[in-house]
Design goal:
Largest sheet: none
Structural class: mainly alpha
Helix content: over 70%
Strand content: under 5%
Distance between the termini: 23 Å
Number of strands: 0
Radius of gyration: 18 Å
Number of domains: 1
Shape: globular
Number of helices: 13
Order of helices and strands: HHHHHHHHHHHHH
Amino acid sequence: MNLVLYLLAVLIWGSTWLGIKFQVASAVPAPVSVCWRFLLASAILFGWSLLTRRSMRFSRRDHVLILILGLFTFSVNYVCFYEAERSLASGLVALVFSLLPVFNMINGVVFLRRYPEPRVVLGAAVGVAGIVVVFWPDIIGFDPHSAGSIGLLLSVLGTISASFGNMAMARIQRSGLPVIQTNAIGMAYGAISIGIYSWLSGAHFSFDPSPSYVMSLGYLAIFGTVVAFGAYITLLGRIGPDRAAYAAVLFPIVALALSTLFEGYVWSGRAIVGAILILVGNVLVLARGRLPQATKPSSAEAC
C-alpha cells in the first residue's frame, strides 16, 4: 500500500508540470487559470469536509496563518510557475522547483530557528550549482527582455514563495490545525487573491471550453491537488516525513521524461550534468543518518 501511495504522489506530481503547459497554451491568462484550479480544488475539499462532518471553525489568528498559506502556497507561486512555462520546458521548471528543500533549509533558519547540519549545507550548495550549470547562458547573459531569463527568474521566485508557504504550514501544524480543512480554506483564499489580482491588472476573466484546457484543469485540480496531496499526507503518517520527502527527488525525473516525450526537449551535456547535481544535492539535503519509523504527519507542496 505504501508503494502505491508513493507512486501516486511521484507520478501525478511529476506529470502536473506538463498539465500546466496545456493551461498556458490557451488564451486564458495564467492567473485566471490558477484561480479556476484552486476554486475547483477548494470546492472539492470543502465538500469532503462537509460530508465527513469536519469542523470548519477557526480563530482569527488561525485564519491569518491560513491566509498566509493561501497567498504563498496556492497563489503567488503558481502564478509564477504558470508564467514561467510560457518560455521554459515544463521539465526545467520542475527541476528548479526541486530546489524547494534548499529554500526550506534557509527559511527554516530564519523563521523556525532550525540550523542545518554541514551535510545539508553541502547538499544545498551542490543543488544550486546544478541550477547554475543548467541555466548558465541565461545567468551570465541575463536580459529582462529574454524569455529564458524571465522564465528562470519566475521559477526561482515561485519556489521561494512555495517555501514561505511551507513555513506557514509548519506554524499551522505546530498549532495542531487539521490539514484538510486548512487547505480547503487556504485554497479558497488563494483563488480569491488571484481573482482580485487578475481584476486589478485588467486580465480578461475567461474560460476555455476546449477539451485540452478542461481536461488539464480537471487533472490539475482533482488529481494534482486533491488526490496526490491526499496520498502524500497518508504516506507521511505511515512512513514519516523523512522518507516520504524523497518524492521531491523523483518527480523532476518524471517531469523531465514527459517534457522530452511531449515537448521535444533536447538534452545537452550541460543539462544532464546539472540535473544530476540537483538530484544529488536533494538527496544530501533530505537524507538522514537514522530514519524514524513513523512521526507526526507534516505537509507537502503539490504542484
